[in-house]
Design a protein that fits this description.
Length: 633
């Protein structure tokens, strides 16, 4: 594969790169306060609670598969122990005095028991694996449904909180995916523990000294695996900002929406250098992690080798002293090897359980905190309509912002009116509209439909009474029909009528499959629309809901002058008997509004009709004059 190098001599490609000081990789000690109490025994103490959580989720996903997995693993462990004990009978017969044919013949019954035990152990182990492979995808589905059920219902303002974003990113990246992994790891721990108990029981029967020596052989591995898990988790935490920035830059380089500007502004070299800077930050952190984990693993394996040598030395001394017969010693060798494998499997499973458990705990904590977080939780039924909507002394601030976006705003909208909100960018128009739409709850003040305080009604049900035509509407990768209906089903005539009122019928008539056309070119037979065509679809979306309150936030931003004029005529016609809240910078469109509110830095500074505000010669008149002068010779 040939890679075209970036031309660093291109004068259009400046070396003025963004400041990425926030991406500095935190060293291992930066997380010592969080991770220092996580040792082997801490892991052991935390695992029971983690296993309870994982098995509770597994039971919720499939009680049958959960029971099958546990029972079949138990039976597999039982036959592991039985096979080892039967091996002693085989060795005793083979090591007995007498002709070889007779010794082999005497060993056959025990040998048949060993074979039967091995077959049954394999059958039960395979059955347990099958049940586990069925269980884990079901657990993942349960976890994903819980997460996305919360993220789609949490208050909209939470998405304006950077801390919420970071936590959600960590949970989406690893937490929800760790749910089925932690269940699988918990089952693996159970499987290995059952096998180890079986082997330990056999060793205890053969000679009590062999059991502690077995643990001595693998405890160093326990130390190295737990330490590696701590390193991996801490590194992931420190790289979260890096992962996010890298993903953003990669989207800019590979997304269709940005492809034209990347080429028009010769951004390729700049973006590749930015990407390289971020990728190197990630690379250096991961290479350093690999080095530290390798050192820990080598130390653990070296000490483990010393422990294994001690085990066999002790076994030789027992043989030399006559404490154990040769047949028992032979069985002990097999049991030690089996026990080492089981204990190493247990340690690996514990390590996986712990590492996955850290991410799984993030997921559980996020879900629990989100479920307990205050929400717009009124339970009353919203009114079917209103005579007047009133916002009184509304104050609202975004998370992390020192200055409120709204500072005691009061407005009212009577039924059947067209009311406009105007003002410069950042004046609070869209924020006020979102509060009136039930998307934000004010920090203080109230919004009422007649005498009903909206804080007391169910926010989800309230939004069903409101239609919104947004400037930053979503271009859903769905059919044209579903882009209008948005999950509602009022019948085909309602879809056609809404499309006709919005002028979207002209767009749909040109599509190859009409309303069934998929509006996303990334998929087979998908179609792409222009910005103005998408705007008409979004307007039809708002008209289709046919709600008593219609909020139009810059509904003509992507339309040409003729289409804009036609749309406002349609909105006025559609508003007959309905209430419309209009937000726009194009003041010629608000001349026919019943009332205009002018906002400036979160305050209502002017109110009145178009003519009244022109006569007042205030902010509105200035803005209107600036726009009107552009059309005068």
């Amino acid at each position: 594969m040939t890679v075209t190098p970036v031309d660093r001599d291109d004068p259009s490609e400046s070396d003025d790169l963004p400041d990425f000081s926030d991406l500095t990789t935190h060293k291992w000690h930066a997380h010592d306060d969080k991770m220092s109490n996580v040792g082997f025994f801490t892991v052991a103490r935390r695992l029971p609670a983690l296993f309870v959580q994982s098995f509770r989720m597994a039971w919720q996903a499939s009680p049958r598969d959960t029971v099958a997995t546990v029972v079949l693993n138990l039976l597999s462990g039982v036959f592991t122990a039985f096979g080892l004990l039967a091996t002693t009978g085989v060795l005793e017969a083979l090591f007995a005095a007498g002709p070889t044919p007779e010794r082999v013949r005497d060993a056959l019954p025990a040998l048949l028991l060993v074979g039967a035990a091995a077959v049954l152990r394999s059958v039960f182990s395979a059955g347990a694996g099958w049940a586990q492979s069925r269980l884990q995808p079901q657990v993942l589905r349960i976890a994903e449904e819980r997460l996305y059920g919360l993220t789609s219902s949490v208050d909209l303002v939470r998405f304006d909180d950077p801390e919420f974003h970071d936590t959600l990113e960590r949970v989406r990246m690893r937490g929800v995916g760790a749910s089925d992994d932690v269940v699988g790891s918990a089952i693996d721990v159970l499987t290995a523990a059952i096998g180890l108990i079986a082997v330990g029981g056999v060793l205890g029967v053969l000679h009590p000294v062999l059991l502690p020596l077995l643990f001595l052989a693998v405890l160093p591995d326990a130390w190295s695996t737990v330490r590696s898990a701590r390193m991996s988790y801490a590194t992931m935490l420190s790289l979260l900002p890096t992962y996010r920035r890298k993903w953003i830059v990669s989207e800019l380089l590979a997304d269709r929406d940005t492809a034209a500007e990347v080429r028009s502004f010769t951004m390729r070299g700049f973006l590749l250098r930015v990407y390289d800077m971020v990728a190197r930050t990630q690379q250096d952190a991961l290479v350093d992690l690999a080095r530290r984990q390798t050192v820990a693993r080598l130390v653990g394996e070296a000490l483990g080798g010393v422990g294994t040598a001690l085990v066999f030395a002790a076994l030789g001394l027992l043989l030399a002293s006559g404490s154990v017969p040769l047949a028992v010693a032979g069985t002990a060798v097999l049991a030690v090897r089996t026990g080492q494998g089981a204990l190493q499997q247990l340690l690996y499973a514990v390590n996986r359980s712990y590492e996955n458990g850290l991410y799984f705990t993030d997921f559980i904590d996020f879900c629990s905190a989100t479920e307990k977080a205050p929400v717009m939780a009124g339970s009353g039924a919203p009114p079917d309509g209103f005579a007047r909507i009133t916002a009184e002394n509304v104050v609202f601030g975004y998370p992390g912002k020192d200055t409120p976006a709204l500072k005691g705003v009061s407005v009212h909208i009577d039924r059947g009116e067209v009311v406009a909100l105007v003002g410069e960018n950042g004046s609070g128009k869209t924020t006020l509209a979102k509060i009136l739409a039930g998307l934000y709850q004010p920090d203080s003040g109230s919004v009422r439909w007649d005498d009903v305080d909206l804080a007391t009604v169910d926010a989800h049900a309230l939004r069903g009474r409101i239609a919104v035509i947004a400037q930053d509407h979503t271009r859903w990768p769905l059919s044209a029909r579903h882009n209008i209906t948005m999950g509602l089903n009022k019948g085909e005539p309602a879809v056609v009528r809404a499309a006709g009122v919005a002028g979207a019928d002209e767009v749909i008539d040109e599509l190859p499959h009409g309303y069934r056309t998929l509006l996303d070119r990334r998929f087979k037979d998908g179609q792409e629309l222009s910005g103005g065509q998408w705007q008409r679809i979004a307007v039809a979306r708002g008209f289709y809901r046919d709600a008593p309150l219609l909020i139009c936030d810059e509904p003509t931003a992507a339309l040409d002058a003729r289409a804009e004029h036609a749309l406002f005529d349609r909105i006025r016609a559609h508003a007959d008997g309905r209430t419309v809240l209009l937000i726009t910078h194009r003041l010629a469109s608000v001349r026919y509004a019943d009332r205009v509110y002018v906002l400036d830095h979160g305050l209502v500074v002017e109110e009145g009709t178009h003519d009244e505000l022109i006569d007042r010669q205030g902010i509105y008149a200035d803005l209107y004059g600036l726009q009107a002068s552009a059309y005068q010779s």
